[in-house]
Amino acid sequence: MNRREFLGRAAGSIAAASALVANPAKAQSVAPSDTINLGIIGPGARGQEVMRNFLRVPGVRFSALCDVYEPRFDQSRKVTGEDTPTYLDYRQLLDAKDVDAVVIATPLSFHEEHVIAALASGRPVYSEKDMALTLDGCDHVYAAVKRYGKPYQFGTQYHFAPWFRKSLQAIRDGKIGPVTQIYSCWHRNNSWRRPVPDPKFERLINWRMYREYSGGLLAELGTHLIQWANEIYGAMPVSCVGSGGIDYWLDGREVPDNLQVIYRYPGGQSLFFSALTTNRYDGMRACIYGTGGTFVLTEDSGTQYWEPMTPNSAVPDQLAMQNGVLTGASFRSELPYTGQGETFENPQGLEGSPDFIACRTFIDCLRNNKKPELDENIGWQAGICVALGNQAIDKKTHIEFGDRAHLPVA
Fold first, then answer.
1. Beta pairing class for 258-264 and 270-276
2. What does the pLDDT look like over 51-67, one tens digit per residue?
3. Which residues pair with 87 in a beta bridge?
4. E strand or H helix at 87, and its extent?
5. Residue 295 has what pLDDT?
6. Where are the domains of the chain?
7. From CA 8, how far away is CA 89, in angstroms rounded?
8. How many CB atoms lie within 10 A of CB 61?
């Protein structure tokens, strides 16, 4: 398959989405039985992982698979355990009568088209992050969710991680005082490149490396922590600055192999995010700094630390009574302090799996006619932050959010 075939098959036509709007009778409502039939557009590596988690939810099966890369079909059928119908064109999947909801796990540049077409067909959508590649794309998807009134869930699964949720509740309860800064990172030590069986499949398989399809490290990794910071601060950023480049992996990629972005929030708070592909020491980590303590969150754990009281500090009096006051002529607050941290007890198995909880939550929304927590509002906010963050990196400048700091008028 050459690049033109890839684009032709994957992108299809916006006119096709319009045709679905004109003939909504093709769409099926969520089945009233216990079984919910899902169709997936893009069952690649990430798509198959999402499939596995949906199939762990009782009463869920996949009735349709769509991809432009045919080897995915045999792989995906091993996941479903069935001779699941396959389609090379997503419009054929949307014509199928036994699809109750659609999972979108295609390259980011296709989210806008695929999500809007699925919504127009009358079906709920679970979409991998981000909402869309561009600012306008995020606006279009947001408007489509409002227009068609179907459930839309945004795929940042760490929102459902038990240790993330515990920390958010503790922050909202004032356990560490006002949060003034969040330092976050997602550091790896690999090229982020996947093997390709034939050079003609390079952009199909390694789409994350190319600007035409990808938002790079900020979209693929940073969006989780950006969305989380938005929840903690209860607001969108008002500005950002960024830095990054292709400085180590000089292999033809078009997106940075390292980047750093700082977002500024309305109350003067900030979020710092760093992504590396040359060192994994810190891994995935978010340090949430409050005046009275700190939460340190990783991929599988959460720990709370109390801030020691120091002269003229903003630590609440009650914490000073509990944890004491540092005094002395030699003020040593420059030294790292953690004290005795309190680690969350996280559930084992599926109940501690953010991916599974995210999938189960979406199915629960369908069965109980509920609006997803990670809805179009949260998806739009995260997508806009990523798009403007990438602009800051590309332009090497300070970006003001302006009207983009607020949800659009539906």
1. antiparallel
2. 999 999 999 999 999 99
3. 66
4. strand 86-87
5. 96
6. 3-150, 160-348+384-404
7. 10
8. 15
